[in-house]
Amino acid sequence: MTFLWIAAALVRWVRLKIYQYEVTFAVYMLTPTEKFIFNSLLLTLISMILTAIYVYLPNHLRVIYGHLYYYWAGERPFVSSGIASIGTAFYDSGSQTLMYETAQTAAATAQATVPEL
């Protein structure tokens, strides 16, 4: 009995939130196709923002901490020197060599197939 009451309260709360969303953004006036397009764009935008926050915010906070510590103490912080940043995936010499070798192999393969045509 209690479970049904909790489930009904949850459904009522979700319906209220959907109603508030539709009234706040005036989605209730749109046709179903327009609603789909609007909701898709909104979901895409929110997911891109959350992905950017997840990927770039930790490194950004680390850089800000490094600047603040430098301004306060006058030297490079010890903590940030041992933490890898997202930039190491792009600027590491080992990965650059691997990318260069992969590109070189792909170019050689493409060049070998061209004379056959």
What does this structure look like?
The protein has 117 residues and is an all-alpha fold. The model has no long low-confidence stretch (mean pLDDT 80). The chain has one domain. It contains five helices and no strands. The protein has helices spanning 2-24, 32-73, 78-81, 88-91, 93-113.
Low-confidence stretches: none
Report mean pLDDT, rounded to a whole number. 80
Biggest sheet features = none
- Please give the domain count: 1
SSE arrangement, N to C: HHHHH
State the share of residues found in helices, binned by percent.
over 70%
Radius of gyration: 26 Å
Indicate the structural class: mainly alpha
Topology diagram in text:
Layout: H1 2-24, H2 32-73, H3 78-81, H4 88-91, H5 93-113
Subcellular location: Endoplasmic reticulum membrane
Keywords: Endoplasmic reticulum, Membrane, Transmembrane, Transmembrane helix
InterPro entries: Ser_palmitoyltrfase_ssu-like
